[in-house]
Design goal:
- The complex is a heterodimer of chains A (256) and B (247).
- With 256 residues, chain A is mostly helical.
- Chain A has 2 domains: 29 residues; 219 residues, MetI-like (MetI-like fold), CATH 1.10.3720.
- Chain A contains 11 helices and no strands.
- In chain A, helix 3 packs antiparallel against helix 4, helix 6 packs antiparallel against helix 9 and helix 9 runs parallel beside helix 10.
- In chain B, the strands form 2 sheets. Chain B has a 6-stranded mixed beta sheet with strand order 6-7-8-3-9-10, sandwiched between helices.
- Chain B is an alpha/beta fold.
- Chain B has a domain of 67 residues.
- Chain B has 8 helices and 10 strands.
- In chain B, helix 2 crosses helix 3 and helix 2 runs parallel beside helix 4.
- Classes of the chains: A mainly alpha (256), B alpha/beta (247).
């Protein structure tokens, strides 16, 4: 039984939870460090009252909007870069400039441009997603072998068919890497943005939920919020993207 | 009228600002059901000639006619089989690779394509691997899929660019026999590029000899009764190969 990775990891998790519970009881200061049990109860209570569910769905909807907008823009930028030399230069310069810039640093200026509300956050999310997706997609297209290109042209496909049915699948391993990195950036950026600026007060997301509960000194709820952020991040990164990887690049033997 | 006629074609390669001549003033004709071999040492521009016929490269002078009309762009009436093993689409199964080629080129409807793909995979003895992905196949099997795919498309002419060059000697000999059998059975017209004299003599009906730097036509001959030693002498003017002279 110890041979199974899942079993081992569950045991490690269990031990960590026990350590948490033990330390919190010993410390006996729920305002600084609530027990594991209190955190779980707060989590269930928040889920039951619908408060946490609303916060999560708010955050996810916002995230998807920014993510999709970023992907669309990345597609446009990549198409431009693949079609013209000046477009390639533009993409190279823009990514070199903006990739090292943490998205959250743009939030103050975004708030001035777009005001308090979803639009500022979406702007920042686009910045988080755009560069990694565009750069990886472009690199993926360029890495498609000349043999595969000639095979594709041999079939007499239209330009659109050639791109969607040959180039995109051939570059898919790189594109998926870009999507993964973009998602990771976007997720961290969004929570930080909600947390620090509280954006549209009252109807906020997960970050806002954590922020508000801290203000009311409902520390178990803060921990419940953090736990939710971790679990959601894990689900998307290790379950969703892993599954996509397993049925695509892994099955095709196209790992990069 | 010949099926394919190449008329004093000159081809250039461009790398950066420089361009150099890959093949100069090449002329030959391929008739229907020919197995026409272009034979020459590396650097004689034989692959470039094949790519020009495929429509990937435009001649700087001369013209190439297929069934009387000039070749402008790549198309499914001239299907390529490459030397590289990565010519199969890795995201499609063996059968899907063939089916996709048939439907994407608009030559066959979905149902016909399925049947046809199955039939041609049978011909190359790969029925068992129809639902495998290419990365699980050996090099020889990949080349057989590529050949099945090309033949299933029913092109006017098959363009083969050293398809067996990257295989081990045993597999290579076996594949040559298989290809020969397939061609004899279905009377395909094949244009086959190679640098191996035995392969040329074994597979071809006609052989075109090219010399190197730049590629020029040395001779054209019937493959039947051709003497490999004589071909070697003609290719290298009876002198030792450059490389061999240092040994």
């Amino acid at each position: 039984m110890f041979e199974s990775g899942v079993v081992r990891k569950i045991i490690v998790l269990g031990v960590l939870a026990l350590l948490w519970e033990g330390y919190a009881r010993w410390l006996d200061n729920p305002l600084l460090f609530p027990t594991f049990y209190d955190t779980l109860s707060a989590l269930f209570a928040s889920v039951q009252s619908g408060q946490l569910v609303r916060a999560v769905s708010f955050t996810l909807v916002l995230l998807l909007k920014g993510y999709l907008a970023g992907i669309v823009l990345a597609g446009v930028l990549t198409a431009f870069a693949s079609a013209t030399r000046i477009g390639a230069d533009l993409l190279e310069i823009l990514t070199a400039m903006f990739n090292p810039l943490p998205s959250i640093a743009l939030l103050p200026i975004a708030l001035i441009w777009f005001g308090l509300g979803d639009n500022s956050v979406i702007f920042v999310l686009i910045h988080a997603v755009l560069w990694s997706v565009a750069l990886n997609t472009y690199a993926g297209f360029r890495a498609v072998s000349s043999t595969l290109r000639m095979v594709g042209q041999n079939y007499g496909l239209s330009t659109f068919g050639y791109i969607t049915r040959i180039l995109v699948p051939a570059a898919f391993p790189s594109i998926l890497t870009g999507l993964k990195v973009g998602w990771a950036f976007a997720w961290r950026t969004l929570i930080a943005a909600e947390l620090v600026f509280g954006v549209s007060s009252g109807s906020g997301g997960l970050g806002w939920y954590i922020f508000e509960n801290k203000n009311q000194l409902l520390i178990p709820n803060v921990f419940a919020g953090l736990l939710t952020v971790i679990v959601l991040g894990l689900l998307v990164e290790n379950l969703l993207f892993k599954t996509i990887e397993n049925v695509t690049v892994r099955r095709w033997g196209m790992q990069v | 009228m010949s099926l394919l006629s190449v008329e004093s074609v000159t081809l250039e390669y461009r790398s950066g600002r420089q361009s150099f001549v890959a093949a100069r003033d090449i002329s030959f004709k391929v008739e229907s059901s020919d197995r026409f071999i272009i034979l020459g040492p590396s650097g004689c521009g034989k692959s470039t000639v094949l790519k020009a016929i495929g429509g990937y490269i435009k001649p700087v002078s001369g013209r190439i006619l297929l069934n009387g009309s000039t070749i402008e762009a790549p198309g499914p009436d001239r299907v390529f089989v490459f030397q590289e093993f990565d010519q199969l689409l890795p995201w499609k199964t063996v059968k899907a690779n063939v089916v996709f080629a048939l439907t994407a080129s608009g030559k066959f409807q979905r149902n016909d394509a399925e049947e046809r793909a199955a039939a041609f995979l049978e011909k190359v003895n790969l029925t068992k691997f129809a639902s495998s992905y290419p990365h699980t196949l050996s090099g020889g099997m990949k080349q057989r899929v590529a050949i099945a795919r090309a033949m299933a498309m029913e092109p006017a002419i098959l363009l083969m660019d050293e398809p067996f060059a990257a295989l081990d000697a045993l597999t290579r000999a076996k594949m040559q026999d298989e290809l020969l059998q397939l061609c004899v059975d279905s009377r395909f017209t094949v244009l086959f590029v190679t640098h191996s004299i035995p392969e040329a003599v074994r597979l071809g009906t006609r052989i075109l000899l090219l010399s190197a730097h730049p590629g020029r036509v040395k001779a054209e001959m019937d493959a039947r009764g051709a003497d490999p030693n004589r071909i070697h002498e003609m290719l290298f003017d009876g002198k030792l190969e450059e490389g061999a002279a240092h040994v």
